[in-house]
Amino acid sequence: MAASDEDVKNEGKKSPVVLIAIIGVVVFLLIIGVIVAMLLMGGGDDKQVSQAADTPASHMAPKQRSNDFFNIGPMYPMDQYVVNLLSESGTRYLKTTMNLELSEQTLSPEIDKKQALIRDIIIRTLSAKTYEDVSTAKGKERLKDELVTRINEVLRDGYIKNVFFTDFIVQ
User: What residue ranges are annotated as transmembrane (predicted)?
Assistant: First the structure.
């Protein structure tokens, strides 16, 4: 029986050593995990700050069109557009007139200078649509979102908040 008491004592001595070793490995792995997480999450802050300072104001534009109809910004009226819609027969067309809601009045001179570019963006966007794309209210909303996004990509002095169709005929 003395041997069995010694075995119990030895096991009691071994188990704290094993337990301390396991705790040490777990703590080491936790420290490594925290360091990796901090590097992944906090490592890009300097780049983001420097990129934000270098980017034009148009890249600071909200990702969605403005739905604040109580505080509508300055309006910039656009010319009438008549484009063929994408179709197999080529017989459908869209006639539309729109106003661009500006983030600030100081954007108007830039739009005047880039009138041809913005007109080209609008024509390419409209003519890439099918009748099914623009015939529903949801389709018109998606079209507005796309126009705002594409036009804002070329603006520096502000951004387009919304597009308002003042005339929209599909035939």
Answer: 17-41
Are 154 and 80 in the same domain? yes
d(CA 151, CA 122): 8
Q: What is the pLDDT of residues 10-58, one digit of tens each?
A: 555 567 888 888 998 888 888 888 888 777 776 544 444 444 444 444 4
Residue 131 CB burial class (10 angstroms; 0-12, 13-18, ≥19): middle
104 and 50 fall within a common domain = no
Residues 146 and 140: their CA atoms lie apart, in Å, by: 10
Range of the domain at 148: 57-170
DSSP state, residue 158: -
> Which amino acid type is present at position 130?
T
The Cα 148–Cα 62 span in angstroms is 10
Q: Is the pTM of this model over 0.90?
A: no
d(CA 158, CA 51): 17
- Verify that 68 and 149 share a domain, yes or no: yes
Cβ count near 19 (within 10 Å): 10
